[in-house]
Sequence to fold (337 residues):
Amino acid sequence: MAILVTGGAGYIGSHTCVEMLNAGYEVVVIDNLDNSSSESLKRVEKITGKTVKFYKEDVRDKDALRKIFKENKIEAVIHFAGLKAVGESVREPIMYYNNNIQNTIALVEVMTEFNVKKIVFSSSATVYGEAKVVPLTEDMPTSAINPYGKTKWFIEHILSDLYNSDNEWSVALLRYFNPIGAHKSGLIGEDPKGIPNNLMPYISQVAVGKLQKLHVFGDDYNTPDGTGVRDYIHVIDLAKGHVKAVDYVLKTTGLEAINLGTGNGVSVFELRDAFVKATGVEVPFVVDPRRPGDADEVYADASKAKKLLGWTAELDVKQMCEDTWRWQSGNPNGYEQ
Ligand code: NAD
Ligand code: WQD
Fold:
């Protein structure tokens, strides 16, 4: 019996493969390598001493999915595959709807054909839209303000409608906050193409000398130091949350939205300072205007994950910074040697 991991060669997917293998699960990956490299999976095998069965295919290709379901005894699916850059989604909305929505529909159609009705979906805190109250709880109203966020919001609705039509399904909608960090081996980590959109990869690329200075997007937010506050979560904690979510969907039916965050808010300045302290490397910065669409504060109420899954984040910001740096300094060009 195996777990199918879509998008398993990517950042969160590769770390989740490690934790799934460590927990004793067999793992099958489908990834079109659109935003990743198969080298990540070789390194997953190196870290765990176990094998990953890999299909380089697109999740929108139903025949490719059927082949995977025929060749493997799949018990449940973790669905990471998708495009994730907010700015790009504003410029290329159809590409985002085409990929994220179509691949989910193809996947659940083929899962239904093979009577596999257990799915853990990568949702995002982005579905809380412009919520003004923190911490965010799962029962707050959801919405979305950009095409990327809308794909996550729509997919949550698609999976809810599916569950309502057939109560044999078990669906976990995992709403991630801000994943950062890397495996402690330094062998796998985040490998963004081009200039990073997100704060931590930007900081680490400044530290390694690939970028000149950090651009802090606004210091006039309604926060203690004026910079944006987010809930950074170590990717290994996030990966372990997926193991717990798979355990959970395997033994239940139902649909649950679950926040995966630490519950702690950390500002841009605090994260930069923690990185400098943890690594001893300077990260020069300049304060720029706000980035449109950014909120003052976003952090989770993480109590539902604890209650339902028995999961809480354990690693702190210092470990997030140290592990990011071990990966970035050991692999300045990511998986490209
Ligand atoms: P990633 O880009 O590193 O991983 C996604 C993987 O999916 C990549 O390996 C890519 O090649 C693959 N992929 C994309 N479209 C595909 C398709 N049609 N068929 C097969 N493979 C395909 O991104 P990540 O950071 O690991 O994110 C994983 C998931 O988590 C995504 O769905 C993302 O939207 C979601 N998420 C990420 C964050 C974050 O900050 N990283 C936050 C919240 C939610
Ligand atoms: C964090 C803070 C910025 C970059 C995004 C997506 C969200 C989710 C996670 C997928 C903010 C500031 C950033 C920089 C900066 N992804 N910043 N300089 O925006 O919270 O969330 O990733 O679902 O949907 O929107 O993360 O890392 O981009 O920004 O000052 O170069 O850092 O303003 O306050 P964000 P982020």
